[in-house]
Amino acid sequence: MAEQKYPPEFESQIRKAMAVPEPNAEAMDALRARFIAHGMKALRPDLPPDSAPDPDRPEKESNKMKRATFLSAPRLAWGLALLVLAASIAFALSSPEVVNALRRLFGYIPGMGVIDQSAPLRVLAEPVSQTRDGITITVKEAVISSDKTIVKFALDGIPSDKLSPINEVVCPQRPTLRLPDGTLLKLTGGEGNVLAPTYEMRLVYEPIPADIHDATLLIPCIERAASGVLPEDWELPLHFVSAPPDMAVMSVMEVTPAPASETGTAENNPLRITKVIDLGDSYILTGEFQAPPPSGQSDSGVYGLRITDGNGQEVRFEGFPQDIGMPTPTSPTAETWSVKFNKDFVPPVHITYTKQYILADPSPETVEFEFDTGENPHEGQIWQLNKEFLLAGRTFTLVSVGALPDSYEFNFASTDNSIYRVDVVIDGHPPDIMGGGMDAGMVGASGSWSVSAGPYRELPKGKLKVILSHPWFIGEIKNWTIDWQP
User: Fold this and answer.
1) Which residues contact 92 (CB under 8 A, 6 or more apart)?
2) Structural domain of residue 144, as residue ranges?
3) 433 falls in which pLDDT band (50, 70, 90)?
4) Are residues 256 and 352 in the same domain?
5) Distance between CA atoms of 194 and 175, rounded to whole angstroms?
6) Entry pTM
7) Are strands 298-308 and 349-360 parallel, antiparallel or unpaired?
8) Looking at the structure, do residues 238 and 285 belong to the same domain, yes or no?
9) Same domain assignment for residues 218 and 265
């Protein structure tokens, strides 16, 4: 049989159809919805066929057209070829396997986190270790997806007496990834346990380009180690290969639930679930909360998150699993959350998100007092003071002051349970460490709270002048709930 010749225009159209650019995220979401719609249509054989005339199928309209005429007309031949191509695509779109694959664009790798699977994954070819002065750094795992690079490494053999207090910043430089051309990838997230003698870090960087298979992990200094105390300027070469086909990647389902109502009102609930990960014996849920505080009040943060099951039983959970961490918010004003819990519950689960709001007193009023620590204050020492103060029309008591390793903790009580906190400053002794300051505890039913002054490299001692100012009062406490059914 002679080889069939096709017009150049037809071949050009086919090439253009094949050479499509990579879609963006919005396009993929829209395409996914269309694919699912096609799948639903394919599963509904009861729907009547479309009786409208089909311009590409003239044989359905008339029997008068001769078969020879139909096959000999080039325009109709092109139409038939495109029709066959369209039918093949429609068949693929109606396939449940294709629809499910599109829903698995995001995956979860235990211990590493959520990754984008729209491009082939790459992993560390083999663990890489270096040992210097008895300290070993081992890059255990790494994975590259189209949206990020995740590197997990451990440090072992660190002498505890060589490390500074955990809240003292002595190694301000973070580990970086350097590409062969010298490009440094931006660090976008991560977390770790930095307790001696062994600790692990999981760091997230920008994605390494698909045509680059090597990088160098640069660790300028060891966390919590003062300059020159422990080995510095580590360089660990990393080589990446294609991920094995049997690599464990859990599916991630993106969720857009209908909002519930705030407890006791008809307002829309800003609490929502964004992702669900099924780990086999447990679930991970991530979500967001986004709502402005009530008029005239400020946001004091999350007062609590509670999960109960369909029988009203408490569901124990792990907040912010280490390999999930703090999810990226979809807007600057959104709060994010993530929880992990076992499957031993009766569905559905009810998630309650509690917010406490506070009101600041605008008055510049202050009160002062002297506090004598003596010449040798030490950790664990407590001074019982029971001093009563009047500030902004509210009466409260400074019950005691306790010495912590690097700060003083001021413990207050209020009989009307209305004060959230007051600012505490030790005159002439600003915190020594960047980021230091006060830390207020939540007010309980007893109306007590604590504020820390510090941290300091060395605790101030002797007669100290303490200034109390800017009281904050407890505002509304609001609950939002959302139900989730596996």
Assistant:
1) 98
2) 113-242
3) low
4) yes
5) 14
6) 0.56
7) antiparallel
8) no
9) no
